[in-house]
């Protein structure tokens, strides 16, 4: 971390009057209740401090910079155990990175305190007459579905992620070419660790509007996978509707059993102070029998392609009601209809004052609990999570 302070001190006096410094402090107090009998409840307090710095040198050149500092106090076993939900590590799409955790180091004993850091944005944007060129660490995400995005394979969030405000940054070169008021072509190369070609990704995406419908075809070549997808969004009266699908072809050793199709389709509607949506997701990479879940997780689909749901058919419901201008209640419900099992996520948020928020919520898994290492249902095998958080923005 020491190397970072010096350049910032040198840089800040020279960024000009257009520089904007912003950020936030977030604290999450979390309890994890394991689905396995006899395992005690584990706790974590996570503190995150973020600094965002943006500057426009001219109408044609600007940069973005963001740095996160984390202090976590948690059960020691949480430093050693992997998350229950397997997704692609976004740090794999970074050429190199800061050492994290700062503490404990490789030779330090594992206790209850961890200090982490994350250089999350560091990109330069060049605005040419015909295109915008973005070079460096940046966020890349696609898809209009509310719960599961089949086309989002670079650095997606899982359903139970607590903090989804900032998509993890990846190292990329990206060119966005406008071809009309509502259309563009977006191409780029995302670098893997140490510039390894077999850990990198190339994408080409376009977006255009036809008959009052936004259509976005997508092509992504990543690792040993080839994705061809499309995202379609339009309004039907006062109802918003979407369909997002992707066909993934695997070129590795298990190619014959790893090609799959995923699709999410749904609709949303706002009535008064309430917003609601419904979504169906088909996961062609999943399996029907819970006894096959663990074996299926070893496929490249789950290692490299950001798939984390284990079954095949899912329904999701979500709603947010604004009780007052300062208090909002929300809830989401995700069901694996084949198990069957369910994941319920209620939350309430209170805007105490400007830029100061307090919230509480839970992720509750409902279904048959695992027996030993084997799943009896998907969401019955997830830990129940309770959290309390507050956020301060500046």
Describe the protein:
With 394 residues, the protein is mostly beta strands. It has a single domain, classed as Porin (Beta Barrel), CATH 2.40.160. 7% of the residues lie in helices and 52% in strands. It has 5 helices and 18 strands. It has helices at 2-11, 77-80, 255-258, 293-296, 300-304, and strands at 20-33, 42-56, 61-74, 113-127, 132-138, 170-180, 183-190, 201-210, 213-222, 225-236, 239-250, 260-271, 274-283, 313-324, 327-336, 341-353, 356-366, 384-393. It is globular, with a radius of gyration of 22 Å.
Mean pLDDT: 91
Q: What's the CATH class label?
A: Mainly Beta
Name the CATH architecture: Beta Barrel
Low-confidence stretches: 1-15
Give the full name of the CATH homologous superfamily: Porin
Q: What is the number of domains?
A: 1
Helix-strand pattern: HEEEHEEEEEEEEHEEHHEEEEE
**What summary fits the major beta sheet?**
18 strands, antiparallel, barrel
